[in-house]
Amino acid sequence: MENIIQVDTLRKEFKSYSSRSGLKGAFRDLFTRNYKVIPAVKDISFTIKKGEMVGYIGENGAGKSTSIKMLTGILTPTSGSVVVNGMNPHKEREKFVRSIGVVFGQRSQLWWDIAVQESFRLLKKVYHVPDHVYESHMNHVIESLDIGPLLDKPVRKLSLGQRMRCELAAALLHNPSLLFLDEPTIGLDVLVKLKIRNFLKEINQKYQTTVLLTTHDLTDIEALCERVIMLDEGQIIYDGRLSKLKSSWGEGKQIEFQFADPKIEKLNLAVLTNDLQTEWTSGNKKNVWVANVVNDEELISEVIARVVAAHKITDIKIHEITTEEIIRNIYEEGVIQ
C-alpha cells in the first residue's frame, strides 16, 4: 500500500527574542537583539499509508500543531523533508491544497456573515469542483452530518456543534484523499461527537480517506484510530498500534473501594496489602480509595478479601485502566520507545 505521508528527519526551529531592560537597553535592541533558537520539532520521521486513520497525540507544546502546519504547507521546515500526496506541501502549495482537507477546531474556513450554503458555493469555485460531482457528493455529506436545516443560516448564528459539522462538510467538499483534523470535537456534546465519528468512519470505508487526527479527547482516538503517534518535547516517543500500547502499559486494573469510615488513611491500606504489589491512590469522591493492581484474578480477590475483612465497605467497583491513564503514566515516567 502506498505512503500518502512521508516524513524524514523533520525539524522546525524558532528564534525567541528577549528585550533588554531600560531605555539604554531598548536603544541597543534597535541595532542588535538577543535571541535563542528553540527547536519545536526535533528530527521526527514517520510514514502514513493510504486509508489509515492515525491519532496524533501529545501534551500542549509537544510539537503537534507545528508539525501539522508543516505537513499542510503553512510552515516551512528548518530541515528534513516532507512529501504528502506525492508533493512538497510548501513548494507546491496551490496544487497541494486541492488534494487535502483541513479542520482546525479553533479556526473557521466558513464566511461568518453569509449563509452556510453560500460558503459551500464559494469553496466549490475555489476547488474547481464540477456541478454534477458537487451535487452527488455534497448531498451525501449534508445528509450524513444532518446539516440540511442549517444551510440557509449565517455561520455566526450557529452553535459550536452545528458550526463544526459544517466545517467538516466544507473540508470534504472536494472529496480530498487526506484529511487533517485538529481538535475537531473540542467543546462538543456527546451526540454531536458520535455523529462526527460515525461519519468519519463512513468516509474512510467508502473513499479510503486517510485521516490524521490531533485531539486531547482520547475517546475520539479509541473510537477511530488503530494507530497512534505520540509526541513529547518535539520527538516521537511512540508510534504503533493503540492495542499494543494498551497491552504494554495497561496490564492492570483499578479496584475502587468506598469506605464507611471517613478516617481511613492511605498508610493503613498500604500496610494491609504491602506484600501484594498494590499501589493506593485517592479517588475522586469522599471516602474513596483506589487500589492499582496487575490483572491477576487471584491477586484481585486477595486484595478485596483483605480490605473487606478489615474495614466496612459501602461500595466496590473494578475498572480497566483507561487509555488516558496509560498515556499520563508514560508522560510522567518519561519513557521513550
Automatic annotation (TrEMBL):
InterPro entries: AAA+_ATPase, ABC_transporter-like_ATP-bd, ABC_transporter_ATP-binding, P-loop_NTPase. Residues 25-258 form the ABC transporter domain. GO terms for molecular function: ATP binding. The keyword Cell division does not apply. This is ABC-2 type transport system ATP-binding protein. The keyword Nucleotide-binding applies. Gene3D superfamilies: P-loop containing nucleotide triphosphate hydrolases (3.40.50.300). It comes from the Bacteria. Keywords: ATP-binding, Nucleotide-binding, Transport. Pfam families: ABC_tran.
